[in-house]
Amino acid sequence: MKRRKYKSKKSRANPYFRSTENKHISRSLVLFVLSISGIIGIMSVFIYAPFVRLSIGDVVGGSEEINLAISQKVTEQTQKHSWWIFPRNHKLFFSEEALSAYLLAEFPLNAASIELANGLVNISIAEKVSTFYLLKDDVMFAVDRSGTVLGVVEDLDRARIGIEHEEGKGAPMINDNRSSVIGEGETALSSDWLEDIVRLFDQVQSQTMLTPETANLSDEEGRVDIETDAGVTLYFTLNRPIDSQIDKLEALIDRKLVN
């Protein structure tokens, strides 16, 4: 009986003393709010602080127009955010491979390398051919990437000397032996054919011991004969995949070398 009486008194609230339960709840709530605020503050400083943000540096290797366009485009891309809050120009979230792939997809480039130095994104590019030279009936035409004739090249011999056959730095000399007539502002040949001819030059150069010098476009069916420095002429067609034709050429050369 005495034990029960003691328990009943213990369980009853003392009306002369205020309960400390509300104080504990308030203190816990304040500590929780302060902790969350501190975490958010630290994350904000870590994510948005200037010492972890990247800026566009130098863009080299291309024409002034292409370099400026790349600089503007990269600035726009790095100012955007991933997952709503993470900036793309943050050192931890910035991807050199992703930016390189993006530039190759958006611009006419053979290569794009990214280097980070002192908070700057430095870009080095190898621009694709922008001007081709089409020789037809002893008249040389300058042709852009879309296949549109830009105009007649007056100094034929000087233009021949100035053409380089290095990958990404020059255009092959294209002899157009088709019967069609072309003029300034007209489309000489499709941009796809131009790209395929350049790919032929690049792949023959890199995958064989031959150096291509001239491309002879024979007919409207896309036959193109590549003359090389060894006096060997290679026959291709622009209406079939270039890669498979180069593979067959490699296999043929290997077989001839073995025999």
Contiguous runs where pLDDT drops below 50 for at least 5 residues: 158-170
Helix content: 40-55%
Strand arrangement, largest sheet? 8-7-6-9-10-11-12
Radius of gyration, taken over Cα atoms and rounded to an integer in Å: 34 Å
Give the strand tally: 12
C-alpha end-to-end distance: 115 Å
Give the structural class. Answer: alpha/beta
**Biggest sheet statistics:** 7 strands, mixed
Query: In percent, how much strand structure appears in the residues?
Result: 25-35%
Give average pLDDT, whole number: 76
Number of helices: 7
- Along the chain, the helix and strand elements come as HHEHEEHEEEEEHEHEEEH
Shape: elongated
Tell me what you see in this structure.
The chain has 259 residues and is α/β, with parallel strands linked by helices. Helix content is 41%, strand content 25%. It has 7 helices and 12 strands. The protein has helices at residues 2-11, 21-48, 64-78, 96-106, 156-162, 191-207, 242-258; strands spanning 55-60, 81-82, 86-87, 109-117, 120-127, 131-136, 139-144, 149-153, 173-176, 212-217, 223-228, 233-237. The strands form 3 sheets. It has a 7-stranded mixed beta sheet. A hairpin with a 4-residue loop joins strand 11 (223-228) and strand 12. The termini are far apart.
Helices, strands, pairings?
Elements lengths: L1 H10 L9 H28 L6 E6 L3 H15 L2 E2 L3 E2 L8 H11 L2 E9 L2 E8 L3 E6 L2 E6 L4 E5 L2 H7 L10 E4 L14 H17 L4 E6 L5 E6 L4 E5 L4 H17 L1
Parallel strand pairs: 1-5, 6-9, 9-10
Antiparallel strand pairs: 2-3, 4-5, 6-7, 7-8, 10-11, 11-12
Helix pairs in contact: 6-7
